[in-house]
Write a structure and sequence with these properties.
The structure is a single chain. This protein is about 10% helix and about 45% strand. The protein has about 375 residues and is mainly beta. It folds into three domains: about 100 residues, Carboxypeptidase-like, regulatory domain (Immunoglobulin-like, Sandwich); about 100 residues, Beta Complex (Ferric Hydroxamate Uptake Protein, Chain A, domain 1); about 120 residues. A six-stranded antiparallel β-sheet has the order 16-19-20-21-22-23. Strands 3-2-5-6-8 form a five-stranded mixed β-sheet, with no helix packed on it. The protein has a five-stranded mixed β-sheet with strand order 9-14-15-12-13. The longest helix has about 30 residues. The protein is elongated and about 90 Å long. The chain starts with a helix and ends with a strand.
Length: about 375
C-alpha cells in the first residue's frame, strides 16, 4: 500500500511538472518576448470615458485583433503583445471614433497613449497620422533596442546578431579585429558576465559566459540590450542581458531571399607587409565572401498555427597583410532556423523554435538550440 501511494504521488508530481512546463512559456516568456500597450481615453474636457471599445490589429497578432473595454477610470491595457506594428481603434456611443496607425511595440517595452474623443456631430472621426510612435521602455535599466528598421537598413557585416550588439552604447568587443570572436564587455564588465537569450531561452555557455549560438541576421525580429540596472528577474550577471527575438510567420505566405558578395578586387589594401623569407608584400585581401539567405513563413492553420523557416549559407575567406593569400583564413557556416507559433485558446499561447548552427572544418558537434 505504501509503495502504491508513493507511485501515485510521483505520478501526480510528474503531471504537475508537465502542466507547468506547458504553461511556463506563456507566463515567463511574456516579459522578455512581448510588449504592452496602456493608455487612457478622455473627452475634450479631460473627463475619463469608461466603457469604450478598444481594438488593436497587427500582422503579428495570431488569432486576429485583440479587444478590451476601458475601466471606470477610462484606462485601457493590453499587457501581452508580440513585437510589431499596430493599429489602434477606439469607439464609444455618442463620440467620434479614434484611429491611430503605425504604433511600434517592442519586446519588453510599454507604449502609453492618451486618446481624446470628440462628441458625435463635431467630427466624423479622429485619425492620428505620423511616422510611427516611439517605443517607451519602462524599466530600471539602461536599454538599447534594434528593431526591423535598423536590421534591414543599416549596413553591417551580416555575420550574426553581434554586428548590431557591437553598435550599442557601452558595448565594447574584446577582440575588435577578429571576425569570429564575439566576446563583448559592457560598461567595463568582464566578457563572461553577460546573459544571452533567444526567444526567452538562456543559451549562455556556462563555461565561459559567451553566446552558444549566433542566429542569422535575417532570422531576427529584434535585438534588445539591457544593462546597468536591468530587472532583477534575470540576476547573476554584471554585464548586460542580450535578448534576441526571432521572426515568426503570419496569416499570409511570405518568402524572401538575399545574396551578398564581395570580391578581392573591391577590397581596399591600404597596408602592405612583406611575407616571411623575403617574399613580396601583401595587403588585406577578401579572397571570397558569399552570403545567401532564404526564408519562408505562413499559416499552417489560419489564426491558430504559423510557421517560419530559414537557411543561411555563409562563406568568408580572407588573408591579413604579410600572409600568403593562397592559404586564406576560412569561415564557413550553415545555419538553419524553424519556428512554430501556436494559439491554442485566447489565453494560451506557445512559441517553439529550433536553431542549428554548423561550422565547417571543425571537429566539434553542431550547435542546436531549442526554445519554447
Amino acid at each position: 500500500m505504501q509503495a502504491r501511494t508513493r507511485a501515485r504521488s510521483r505520478s501526480g508530481v510528474s503531471a504537475l511538472l508537465a502542466v507547468a512546463a506547458l504553461l511556463l512559456p506563456r507566463t515567463a516568456g511574456a516579459q522578455g518576448l512581448t510588449g504592452a500597450l496602456v493608455g487612457t481615453v478622455k473627452d475634450e474636457q479631460g473627463a475619463v470615458l469608461p466603457g469604450a471599445l478598444v481594438r488593436v490589429t497587427s500582422p503579428a497578432l495570431i488569432g486576429g485583433p485583440a479587444t478590451t473595454t476601458t475601466n471606470e477610470k477610462g484606462q485601457l491595457r493590453f499587457p501581452v503583445l508580440p513585437p510589431g506594428p499596430y493599429v489602434l481603434d477606439i469607439e464609444l456611443t455618442g463620440f467620434t471614433s479614434f484611429h491611430e496607425e503605425d504604433l511600434r511595440i517592442g519586446a519588453g517595452a510599454t507604449l502609453e497613449r492618451t486618446a481624446v474623443l470628440k462628441l458625435a456631430g463635431v467630427a466624423e472621426s479622429i485619425v492620428v497620422q505620423g511616422a510611427g510612435s516611439r517605443i517607451e521602455a519602462r524599466g530600471s535599466g539602461f536599454e538599447t533596442r534594434f528593431g526591423p528598421e535598423y536590421l534591414d537598413n543599416i549596413p553591417t557585416r551580416r555575420f550574426s546578431m553581434f554586428d548590431s550588439i557591437r553598435a550599442a552604447p557601452g558595448v565594447s568587443p574584446t577582440s575588435p579585429a577578429s571576425s569570429t570572436v564575439n566576446t563583448v564587455s559592457v560598461l567595463g564588465s568582464g566578457g563572461n558576465e553577460n546573459l544571452f537569450l533567444i526567444d526567452g531561452t538562456n543559451f549562455t555557455c556556462p563555461c565561459a559566459g559567451i553566446s552558444r549560438a549566433e542566429p542569422g541576421v535575417d532570422f531576427i525580429q529584434e535585438v534588445q540590450i539591457q544593462s546597468a540596472g536591468a530587472s532583477a528577474e534575470y540576476g547573476n550577471f554584471q554585464g548586460a542581458v542580450f535578448n534576441v527575438v526571432t521572426r515568426q510567420g503570419s496569416d499570409r505566405f511570405q518568402y524572401d531571399a538575399s545574396y551578398y558578395g564581395q570580391a578581392s578586387g573591391l577590397t581596399s589594401q591600404p597596408v602592405r607587409l612583406p611575407i616571411a623569407a623575403g617574399q613580396p608584400q601583401t595587403g588585406y585581401e577578401r579572397v571570397k565572401y558569399r552570403d545567401f539567405t532564404t526564408n519562408l513563413g505562413g499559416p499552417v492553420i489560419r489564426n491558430r498555427l504559423w510557421f517560419f523557416t530559414g537557411y543561411e549559407y555563409l562563406r568568408d575567406y580572407d588573408s591579413q597583410p604579410g600572409t600568403d593569400r593562397t592559404f586564406p583564413r576560412t569561415y564557413e557556416q550553415d545555419k538553419f532556423f524553424a519556428k512554430l507559433t501556436w494559439q491554442f485558446t485566447p489565453g494560451l499561447h506557445l512559441d517553439q523554435s529550433y536553431h542549428d548552427e554548423h561550422t565547417l572544418g571543425r571537429p566539434r558537434r553542431p550547435i542546436r538550440v531549442y526554445a519554447a
